[in-house]
Write a structure and sequence with these properties.
The complex is a heterodimer of chains A (250) and B (233).
Chain A (H helix, E strand, L loop, with lengths): L8 E9 L5 E10 L4 E6 L5 H8 L7 E6 L2 E2 L7 H7 E4 L11 H13 L3 H14 L15 H13 L5 E5 L7 H16 L4 E4 L3 H7 L2 E6 L2 E6 L1 H6 L4 H12 L1
Parallel strand pairs in A: 3-8, 3-9, 6-7, 7-8
Antiparallel strand pairs in A: 1-2, 1-4, 4-5, 9-10
Helix pairs in contact in A: 3-4, 3-5, 5-6
Chain B lengths: L1 H15 L4 H39 L3 H16 L2 H12 L7 H27 L2 H9 L4 H31 L11 H12 L3 H31 L4
Helix pairs in contact in B: 2-3, 2-5, 2-7, 2-8, 3-5, 4-5, 5-7, 6-7, 7-9, 8-9
The chains are: A alpha/beta (250), B mainly alpha (233).
Amino acid sequence: MRGNKNALIKINDLNKKFSNGHVVLKNICLEIFEGDVVCILGLSGSGKSTFLRCLNLLEKPSSGEIFFEGKNILSEKINIDLIRQKIGMVFQNFNLFPHLTVLENLILAPKKIYKKNNLELKKEAYELLKKIGLAKKIDSYPSVLSGGEKQRIAIVRALMMHPDILLFDEPTSALDPTMVGEVLKVMFELAKEKMPMMIVTHEIGFAKKVANRVLFLDDGNLICDESPEKFFNEQENIKIKRFLNCMTYK
Amino acid sequence: MDMVLELKHALYLNLIKDARYLYILNGLKNTLVITFFAVLIGIFFGFLIALIRNFCDNTGKLKLLNRLAKFFVVIIRGTPIVVQLMILFFCVFSSRSANNILIAIIGFGINSTAYVSEIFRAGLNSVDRGQIEAGRSLGLNYFSCMRYIILPQAFKNILPALCNEFVSLLKETSVAGYVAVQDLTKAGDIIKSRTYDAWTPLILIALIYLILTYCLTCLANFLERRLKRHERK
């Protein structure tokens, strides 16, 4: 039904086998479009994170094709650094650079890659920080920030590169429960601005509210790709039902 | 009173008479020159080897170089420095036209390279993997990530170990006498053989070594504090 639209990401027969022989991803095919907010659910060990990390080649797929904006990123000729500039990533453990201030964290990559001048970048960083209410922290080091603040800044750091899509790898799993909300709020705002996002998460409520597609990975197989309404309310797959039950009793 | 007089006489005999202090000054100069240049060689090539090995571990490229580097480290760390020096002096540079001090610099430099490379490697590995992943995911290439993200953090972690290595290198140069270099230890040895007084010259050079290593350690502590200060604000 969306065939006439060009896919932002197109994945064909993606396989990933670890060096110990374990097959983590099995023949995954998927298309992601402009404005999609995709939540990826699944039990731990089902390959969700590995799948996400394959999309910017932090993990190297064993076989298959990944097209990003029409370019096959697994081709030898592709400069992966150029692709990664357009695919932002937010990690479970934030991975802010501890030896740099918040401002330096934000402007390091755009300064080195886009060669923009400091003043311009500083202004941009300040504006983004103001939007998430952290302008006061611009000269702080990450060690004095709370988990929620770190993660919000990590999101801004990814945004500073003006990515065409954002990948979130369990962005709230390492957070104190009281800080989950502030991070999800930032992501919610991004979704409203039509930023394409792929989110590996266990936040069912967030998936229901924000996603327009919900994927379910089971032991490396992509067994479900539905709208949240169908996924949560008309679920027929017994495995997914069991999974959802576990989540609600949590 | 007697003791003071005796000490005065001993110092006069071992240092002033026949300008024997010149042995010590010259030995000190040679020790410092050898240490300084060996440290430079060690840092430069040690860093290079660590980078090659890290690059190979991270990307799977440069496998042959990686293997050579591993081999080099095993050989150098597995054999005594005196033997390495003697091989250089009597076998490799046996033509005698080469300068002894230069040979000592090369020998200690090669030796230090192996140890420093392991220190750097441990330092690079001590930085969380997430750091390079974050850098790469922003689109920075491997070398930019190294330069702006990994190295500043790694350097802070390895500073104490690196300083230790230089302190031991300074002390290890005392075997340079084996290849006919008149370093500080050899100077003490020469004076001893002239004055038949073992105590004074040997204690004296021990003191000089102690002062040198103590200064180095203080310098490292100072640097460490400065770098740490950076972290909290």
